[in-house]
Amino acid sequence: xxxxxxxxxxxxxxxxxxxxxxxxxxxxxxxxxxxxxxxxxxxxxxxxxxxxxxxxxxxxxxxxxxxxxxxxxxxxxxxxxxxxxxxxx
Length: 89
Fold this sequence. Notes:
Elements: H1 5-18, H2 24-34, H3 57-62, H4 77-87
């Protein structure tokens, strides 16, 4: 993600005003929109970003080298890591 100096100034003002930094996934675009900044969504990411997708281990194994976030089920993380190590993925 790229961020302009103007956006970073908005983030700085937000933190100084509120005393905390929210989740950047929604905070950065919201601050940019409120400050009337340009928000660019690269077309190269059109088919690679998925909203609220439920990933399976098979999905991950089919796409080695990709980054998958989030997998919120913490109880399966260790098992998946071990299986990924075993497959060399």
